[in-house]
């Protein structure tokens, strides 16, 4: 499991990275590689990267969902909600062969509730002025989009429950308030909390007794946490460039290997 590769922001050659990751994943005998969004700033490039990985890793499987950065260019809302090839897991699932596990994917979204400590704020206007998501078009408000996400996820979880599956759920946006940082002196990030995810998703995952949840979006280094019956993993690679330095390792692949989380699903 991994997220937030940000190949372009980190000035990485996607073809080289695909070869390097393939070699390491094969060495580790990984059977399913899950990427929880933000591969690049162009959906077509993110999709091509996963397809390149898939061609090299087969018979192992590669699955990804879109983060907000993947949505910025060359994909519409309708496109994101449609099948985009076998590596794209949004609104889909993968039953792990030889196990009772089902991997469920949903891109996710946000509804401003993580910033409910702020009153009288216009989060949409702030988003359009300061946030990369201003370039993402959609035919509804952000809370309405999150309503749709919750309806999709509940249908996915109910279907898994009806056939007795244990669920690993993969999304991009933050599903629990435990990962939100509220400060008294940084108004930018207090406003940005509105755009990080929704606590309603975490409530839904608890309701359906989801065993494992993988997410991304926030680049802080969280250890796995057991919350309300679910183990949460945030395995973001994050940025290292002239403006940001979020890595603990000297180069991209070393950082990726350290952030990669390998689970044994039995």
UniProtKB/TrEMBL annotation:
Family matches, as SUPFAM superfamilies: Metallo-dependent phosphatases
InterPro entries: Calcineurin-like_PHP, Metallo-depent_PP-like, Pantetheine_PDE, Phosphoesterase_putative
A Pfam family: Metallophos
Calcineurin-like phosphoesterase domain span: 2-220
Protein's name according to its UniProt entry: Metallophosphoesterase
Organism: Levilactobacillus tongjiangensis
Taxonomic classification: Bacteria, Bacillati, Bacillota, Bacilli, Lactobacillales
